[in-house]
Amino acid sequence: MSIANKPSLTVGLAGLGAVGLEVAKRLIAGAVPGLTLTAVAVRDAGKARRSLPQLGAIAIKPAVALANDCDVVVECLPPALFRDVAIAAIDKGRIFMPLSVAQLLENWDLVERARQKGARILPPTGALLGLDAVRAAAEGDIRSIKMITRKPPGGLEGAPYLVERKITLAGLNKPLKVFDGTAREGARGFPANVNVAAALSLAGIGPDRTQLEIWADPALTRNTHRIEVEADVARFTMTIEGVPSQNPRTGRIVPLSTIAALRALVSELKVGT
User: Fold this and answer.
1) What is the residue-wise DSSP string for the chain?
2) Which member of 26, 151, 184, 225 is catalytic?
3) Residues 66-121: pLDDT tens digits?
4) Where are the domains of the chain?
5) What is the pTM of this model?
């Protein structure tokens, strides 16, 4: 059967925050032929319909029920809700597309569970770049990967790592390094901030060998990520400066990355690894 004759994949969207709302708008507008948004999960249905009148007859249901009818479940939820939604999608053999990539590191058993159930876990690239190059280099020998994240202080406030250590960023007038460790440690301490580091570690040499620095910089207006890779086939450095969304922890490129990842599921042409 040609792609043109294939039935549409149905999409369930768990969460309509800064990322989910933009993804929903684009899917409803038909931005990706071959994909149909059929259900969303939100805490406040009334607010969702006010924010997105285009929802129309699209079903609103509990996040764990999305997988009952949807081929693809896109997760855009607070980290605490991650596992239940993931299990529901995986146990139904669905495509699970998590944006809370850092939670995969804390729920690694889900990968084996997906293998057993015939499901797939496909995190989008998100606010990062160069994962194609990292994945290619990982087929050889990567000696080291380091990521340096710099964000305006407002994008880091409330992170568990800072709260536990009573580190306040209010009134900061110069750059402050607030974390230096592994991607795994960073994902635990900054679960809403460094999903990019988790994705990078999974594409490359793992969360325990991937090094991460996090800086709060009051001079910045953009979330900046610099990646330094040393491998047997290449040495490369990449930097991206992302415009924050309404949620300062998330870049405006993230919903577009999600749409691109969804498009790859149905497109007859997919560029890149």
Assistant:
1) --GGGSPPEEEEEE--SHHHHHHHHHHHTTSSTTEEEEEEE-S-HHHHHHH-GGGTT-EE--GGGGGGT-SEEEE-S-GGGHHHHHHHHHHTT-EEEES-THHHHH-THHHHHHHHHT-EE-----S---HHHHHHHHTS-EEEEEEEEEE-GGGTTT-HHHHHTT---TT--S-EEEEEEEHHHHHHH-TTT-HHHHHHHHHTT-TTTEEEEEEE-TT-SSEEEEEEEEESS-EEEEEEEEPB-SSTTSBTHHHHHHHHHHHHHH-S-----
2) 225
3) 999 999 999 999 888 999 999 999 999 999 999 999 999 999 999 999 999 999 99
4) 3-125+253-266, 131-242
5) 0.89
